[in-house]
Structure formats: structure tokens, C-alpha cells
Amino acid sequence: MSRMLQSIAGTSCLLVSLCLLAASFTGCDKTRADAPQKKVIVIGFDGADPDLLNQYMKEGRLPNFSRFAQTGDYMPLGTSVPPQSPVAWSNFITGMNPGGHGIYDFIHRDPELMTPISSTSKTEGSSNTLKIGKWLIPLSSGHVKNLRQGEAFWTMLEDRGISTTVIKVPANFPPIESDGKTLSGMGTPDLLGSFGTFSFYTDDPPANRDDISGGTIYPVTLVNNSFESNLVGPKNALLEGEPDATIPFKVYRDAENATARIDVQGKQILLQEKEWSDWLQVNFDLLPAGLTGVSGICRFYLKEVRPKVKLYVTPINIDPSAPALPVSTPEDYVEDLHKCCGNFYTQGMPEDTKALSWGVFDHDDFHSQSKNVLEERLRMFNHVYDNYEDGLLFFYFSSTDLNAHMFYNMIDPEHPGYKPELAAKYHDVIASVYEGVDAVVGRVLDTIDDETTVMVMSDHGFAPFRRAVHLNTWLLQEGYVSLLDETKQEESDYFLNVDWGKSQVYGLGFNGLYVNLLGREKYGIVKYSEKGKLIDEIADKLLDLRDPKNGEKIVDRVYRASEIYSGVNLRGAPDLVIGYKRGYRASDKTVLGSFPREWIADNMDSWSGDHCMAAELVPGIILSNKKIVAENPKLYDLAPTILSEFGVGKNADMVGESIF
Amino acid sequence: MDLINAALNTVFGLVFLPFRNASPVWPMLVISVVTGVAMLVIFKATSDQNAIKRAKNLVKGHFLAIRLYKDDIGLMVDTMKNIIVSNLLYMKQSLRPMLFLLVPVGIILIQLGVRYEFRPLKVGEAVVVSLRVEDAAVELADVRLDLPEGLELNIPPVRVEQLREINWRLKATQSGVFNLAFKHGDHVVDKRLQVVDALAPVTAQVAKHDIGVTIMNPAESSLGEASFASLVSISYPVRDFELWGFSLHWLVAFFVISLIAAFGFKGMLGVEV
């Protein structure tokens, strides 16, 4: 009898425990029992420009920005030198200039190899593998390294017990170790390890399909109104030769309707022309029978059904519900966001500017994708803001930047790519993006208490990009660079045709110019003692440089690294940073070491607005509900400002000061 | 088969009735626990409990021999062989009760499956509905779908001649249980579509002749002999089943909970397993 009673008691306890556990479901929201902390909210709008903001506020289109500017303080915010997002956001994150955090451009160079490399992160595969047949089994794990140096201000806050939430801040991939909640932003790759590689399947491939960067064109042949192809995923490092992991899919086109069915991994998607699918989870097998694989997400866009079939697939994004690479801290925070917000672009720069630049997208296509991105980001903001209690909240929006890049020629009649019929249709796009994010400002202003500090800021402003300067070609024509084979001037890139033994300088990145210095560069020839004179000579020539088309000056100012940078990471600095005038920028070709025939050309790309110019010409914005006492606040002042709001002193490496 | 399904639907409809407004976790907990206990009872009634006990004791004895005579390689090898034989004997004793359990557990799993594998649509969601027509005399272009109020056609259909399929994407604008009427001339094929925010049996497929589809989708009758369609499918969303905050497949939850319950009640019911 007692055995039976024991058994009943034991089983009852077990079932009660099960029931209690079942009742204690954890939802999306988490509560914290700590004492309330100070609140500081920083909203970052990449590329929000003071001139555009003023114009739209004046037109009455931004009621919440206007209210904030009137009730608080509003000023231009000095950007970084050069004013590029990875550099600027690194200034913001560390309170240092590039001499401290070591990020000088989107692109750096490896002086040992004389090739361009990504400035913000580095991926290293497994160094040891075991070969079994055609399979390579890794014996150690590879890793991704964040190359930004210096301490992020939010980790300093966490060290003092202040809770932090930092969403999508650029130049933070992989996210640095943190006790707070962070989600990586610009710089986060897609599943292929690139900054975004789209796929485009068509029976009408363009003639220049092999030249297209940022995506791959896959020619298809329709048989009985259907075609088969593959989604191309990451390299399978477990197989000899590292072939691409692929997923087959099949598309069926309706015989009459402008609709199609896409069958992928047992799922069916129906789309009509000009329609986006929802996010689709796809699993790439790396070992047979699904023993191991990697999961990604993508969206399909049925651009055209007939007469030609055109199917666009987004870059395969890291799956937020099962991330293959670290994109958040804690590592499962991204999964929590996924549970509450659904799938979202984990890729750092989601708007597919390359697809528009190469004509895979038209402006309508790009605009529809851009709206998807903004809707997703707003949904995530609302979720994060709903769950924000105290401490620091930083949230970043990319739409203000990438739409200005791609639609600037719609508001700039002087742009060589300006077309009145297109401008009539799209002149309002940039303004509509500002209107979209105005609601974010409104929500924050409507819900804060008097003790909360709010800052709305951008990393830089915007300017027209009308003329593309092929700096390396100019250096070649001026005799500072020599080629190995002049007949192949236009055919090679990545400096492969440069005769380093006869070249004194080279342009790399969007604003950088490097001396081919003896002892630093692999094939350096210029002695250190000659460097200063050479730099002065080139600087003078650049400042006198005039556009043959209109006689206007091209370069507003040049910055010598030794004069503007300070810190412990000066080794990678360019010797000269070129501050172009508004309307001018280094061409896409020159930044990676190509040598087109002409040294300057009209910029006919859809990428028609930019900010890689003189920093003084493209300031960002800062709005705050506290009085700003600094006369010329700068990006690197914001880290000390935020720390100061929590009563935390800045560290010795920070060059900025609190703006309050 | 349809009659059997109808009877089982009625029984399980009553079982789930008290939980109609509860979280899907509760019926899963209760049914798994009850099933676990019921399996024990059936196991006890249909097995030779003494033989099972003997087989288990034999295995235990051989393991003890391994510990005692670990220095004697010859004996160790013999004991290993004996352990395998004893285990096979033990498994043989379990075979009969397992056969008795197969049908009831299968029925329970199928009835749970129609509720937990997929979930009904929610208002605002879209779903792909596919109709397969094997009869070559039927022109796909002549088949139409009549929708009741509460459902709307999202985009024009996709007709795939090589698969003999027509696909529609429907969006739910109201909640309810709707009837989809596929028409070809005077012939009509009906299929239910569930748009409810509750645990309800959903039928992802109905077939004309496919007995497997009919067994696995018991909540709706199979298509009649006169049907011009051979299969109708609805790609209902997969149900995310969470237990204590952990996402897991409902089958795993079912087996884990029923096993815990079975082991919990084993002593009380005096069952040797």
C-alpha cells in the first residue's frame, strides 16, 4: 500500500511539475527585476542629410522631426574623414578617429600581397582537415574576426552593470563579445560570405552577364513552360575542391496568366508578375543524407513571366532562426528576434543596389524591395522598443542611406543620369523614406519621460555624385604609376597590371592614396625620406585639378594622415585622404585598382548620390532633447556623450568630448 | 475506411472538446499521459510478465558477470554473447504486446497528427490549394473554383499541364470553416478549408483512390468515385509546437511525455517492462 502511495505521490509530483512548466511558457517579452536605470535612446539614420531634412521639414512632411528640432536641439554633426559608413560608425562606436579604431575605408590593402581586402572583418577557414575519400573533415573550427579596434562604448556601460541593446549598428560583425543584446548590421555577409550576391534566372540573359558584380545571372531554357535550376549556396568546405552547395528548384509558368509556381525543397510558392514571395527557409546539405548542412533564407521576386521569364532571388541570408555565423549577442538573441518578428534580412546592406546598377532591377523593383526592408526594420524597431525598459537603446536604419544613393539623380536635374520622365515618377522616393522613419521619431517622443535622453543622429550627409574620377588613371597619366602592359590598360583590375617597380603611389578605396613605400609595401620603391615631398606634390596637383567638362575644381581638400589621425593603429592609414568636392567621387573601377582609359567620366550609374567626399561638405545630423553645448559636435563625441549620460567616464583612447 | 474515420473523428472530437479554448499543450499533456498509462495496461495484459522478468534478470546477471570476471577474457567474450542472446529473448517477449499496441497507438498518432502537424489558417494568411486531375479528358482551363465569402483569390491560378495540376493562392479574410467548390461542368468537388485560431483537425489532402492519404487524413471523407479530381491539397502552415519554451516536433513531445508517464506509473501498476 505504501509503495502504491509513494508511486502516486511521485507521479503526481511529476505531472504537477510538467503542468507548472507548461504553464510557465516563455513568450517574447522578458522582464528584469533590477532597479530601474537611466534611459538613453539613440536612433541612427544612416546618411540622413541636413539639407534634405531641412527641406522636408520646411515642406511640412516630417512633423515629428520638426517637433524634435523645435523642442530640443538640432545641429549638423561632423562626420569622419573619410565620410564612409564603416569609418564613421567606427568613430561613433569607439569615440576615436581611424587612427584608433583602424578602419580607414570600406577597402583596405594587404601590403604583403598588394591586393584590396575588406576593412571590417576577416574570415579564416579551418587550418587542419582530415581527408576521407572526397570528403575533408575539419579538425579545428574556422572563425570570423571583427577587425575594428578599440572598445565599444556599450561594453564599457555593461562593465558597470548598465543594460544595453544595440541593433544593427554597422562595423560590428561579428558582434564583439558583449553582455548586452546586440545584432550585427552593415558588414554582415550573406551565406556565401559576400556582402550580397543575388541570383537571377532568365531565358534572356544580358550580353554583359559575366561582368556583373554583386550577383550571378543563370541562363535557363523553358521546356513546356517550365525550367529547372539551382539555388547556389556556400562553398562546401567538406568536399574536395569546395564545390558550391546547391538546392534544385523548378519553376512552372501558367500558359496564359502572368503567374508561376516555384517548387523548392517540398514547398510550393505561387507568385504573379512583380510580386515578392515571403521569406523561404532553405537547407543546403553539406554531407549526404542531411547529416550536416547549413540553413539560409531567401525571397523570390518574379520580375517577368512573359515574353521572357525573369526570376530574381535575394542573396541567401543567414537564417535568423538557425544562424550559421554569429550575428548577435547573446548568440540566441537573433533567434528570439526571429520568434517575435519573423524572418528578416540579416545581411548587412539588404537593399540590392547592385541589381539596380546592373539593370537586373528597374527602379520599381528596387523601390519595392526597399519598402520591404523598411517595413521589416520598423517591425523590429517596434518590437525592440516595446521591450525596452531602461539603459541604452541604439537602433539603426539603413533606408535613408541606400535610397539616397540610388534615387539622388531623381532630385538632381544637373545629374548626367537625370531623366525628366523618371524624375517625375521617383522624385519623391527619398522624401517618402524620411517620412517613413519620421514615425519612429514620433513614437519615441510620445513615449519618453522627462529623465530620458534621446538622440537622433546620422553618420554623414549626402551629395550628388555626377562625375566619376578614375584616380589611378590620373596617376598613370601623371607618371606616378606604370603598367606592365599598356595595351591591356583597361583589361585588368586589382592592380594586377601595375609595374610596382616603377610605381610611386596608388589609389585604393574611395578616398585613399598610398605611397608605394620601401619597407612597407611588398614592392615598395619610395624611400621614407622622399615620401613627404611626393605627397605634397600630388596634393598640390589634386587641389588644382579641374574637370575638363566644365572647368570646375574636383578636389576640395586633401588630408595628410599624419595631421588628422591619432592612435595606436596608424599603420594601415592611407598617406593621403582625398576630399572630393560635391558632385565628384572616386569611380567604382579605380577603388579596386582598375585603369579605365579616361581619367574622369560622367557617372551614369543609378548609384547617383554619395558622401565619399570632403567630410566638411557632407555632415550628418544630431537632434537631441538636451541642449547641445558643443559648437561643432562630431561623431566621435557621441560615445563620450552617451557614457557621460550614465555617469561613466570616457577612456583615455577616446578623442571626443560630451556634447552636452 | 471513411466510416471508420468518421467514428474515430467523433471519439477524438469528444476527447479534445474540453480543451477547445486551451493552449494546444494541455491536450497533448493529458493525451500523452493517458496513452502512456494505457500502453502500460495493455502491455501488462498482453505480455508474459514472468518471462520478461526472467529475461531482464538474465541480462542483469550477465552484466554482473562482466564486473566480477573482467580479468578472464574468455569468460568476458562468452558473457557478451550471452548478453546479446538475453536481449534478443527480452525483445521477443516485448514483440507480442508491441503488436497489440501498434493499432491503438497508430490511431492516436494519426488523430494527433491532424491537429498538431499543421494548423488552420489565420485571418490575413494565404495558402496554396492544389487540385490534381488525372483524367486527360478534363481541360485544366475548364476547371474553376468557387469561393465563399471570407476567402479571396490572391492571384490568378497557375495551371501546370505536365503535372495535371491547378494551383490557387487563397487569402482568408474571415474566420470560419469554408467549403471550396471545384467545378468542371456539372461536376463539383468539395474540400474544407479551416480558418480558425484554435486547435482543430485539418485535412491537408483528400484523395479519390489513395488509401494512404485517406488513412493519414481522417478528418474529411475521401473524394467520391464520381470526382473529376484525383487529389486536392492545401498547404496549411506547419504548426510550431512549443513545450516550456522549447520548440520541438509534436511527436517527440508525445513520446517523451508518454514515456515519462509510463515509467511514473510502472511501479504503481506493477508492470514489468
Q: The biggest beta sheet of chain B, please?
A: 5 strands, antiparallel
Question: Strand share of the residues of chain A?
Answer: 25-35%
Number of helices of chain B: 6
What is the architecture of the largest domain in chain A at the second tier of CATH?
A: 3-Layer(aba) Sandwich
Report on this structure.
The complex is a heterodimer of chains A (about 650) and B (about 270). Chain A has about 650 residues and is an alpha+beta fold. Helix content of chain A is about 25%, strand content about 25%. Chain A folds into three domains: about 35-105 and about 150-190 and about 330-460 and about 620-660, Alkaline Phosphatase, subunit A, CATH 3.40.720.10; about 190-325, no CATH class; about 465-615, no CATH class. In chain A, the strands form nine sheets. In chain A, strands 2-34-25-1-24-9-10-23 form an eight-stranded mixed β-sheet, sandwiched between helices. In chain A, strands 12-11-21-20-17 form a five-stranded mixed β-sheet, with no helix packed on it. In chain A, strand 15 and strand 16 (about 265-270) form a beta hairpin. In chain A, helix 6 (about 155-160) packs parallel to helix 17 and helix 10 runs antiparallel to helix 12. Chain B folds into two domains: about 1-115 and about 250-270, no CATH class; about 125-235, Immunoglobulin-like (Sandwich). In chain B, a hairpin with a 2-residue loop joins strand 9 (about 240-245) and strand 10. The longest helix of chain B has about 45 residues, at about 75-115. In chain B, the strands form three sheets. Chain B has a five-stranded antiparallel β-sheet with strand order 3-4-1-8-7. By secondary structure, chain B is α+β, with helices and mostly antiparallel strands.
